[in-house]
Amino acid sequence: MGGGKKKQSKKQTTKPKAPKQPKQKEKSALTAAKKNLGLTIPDINDKKVLDELKGLKVLTPSIVASRYNIRLSLANAFLKELEKRKIIEFVSGGKNLKIYKRLG
Q1: Model confidence over 13-71: pLDDT tens digits?
Q2: CB neighbour list of residue 100: distance below 8 Å, 6 or more residues apart
Q3: Alpha helix (H) ranges present in the chain?
Q4: What is the CA angle 34-40-43, rounded to 5?
Q5: What is the predicted pLDDT for the residue at 47?
Q6: What dihedral angle (degrees, nearest 10) is formed by the CA atoms of 23, 27, 31, 36?
Q7: What is the pTM assigned to this prediction?
Q8: What domains can you pick out in the chain, each with its CATH number?
């Protein structure tokens, strides 16, 4: 069934092989977007940030990540810090999705 490797002809054995050149990857807009993602949490004490959060009825990590152009893990950390400071309150959620609301 599997057999072995196919035997090369005389022409193929005498012909020198050219070294394989690695394929050059094109830099797409997606990789550029990944590099631009922020690696810092927005300033919690900034009045502008808190005013933006007031306008939202519901806070989820994905909403915060897209609004501030940060990674999802940082958005989770940001929301946990806000919850610790009693600015927002955990409403509902499971393993993958957590929903918060603003207090006051």
Answers
A1: 887 777 777 766 555 554 455 555 557 888 888 888 888 888 888 899 999 999 888 99
A2: 58, 59, 60, 79, 82, 83, 88, 89, 90, 91
A3: 10-14, 29-36, 47-54, 61-68, 72-84
A4: 135
A5: 87
A6: 140
A7: 0.61
A8: 41-104 (1.10.10.10)
Amino acid (1-letter code) at residue 11: K
HSE-up (13 A, CA, CB side) for residue 34: 5
For the record, the structure tokens of 64 come out as: 């915060």
Strand partners, 70: 38
> What tokens does 77 get?
């950390």
Instruction: Please report the sign of the dihedral spanned by the C-alpha atoms of residue 50, residue 85, residue 79, residue 70.
Output: positive
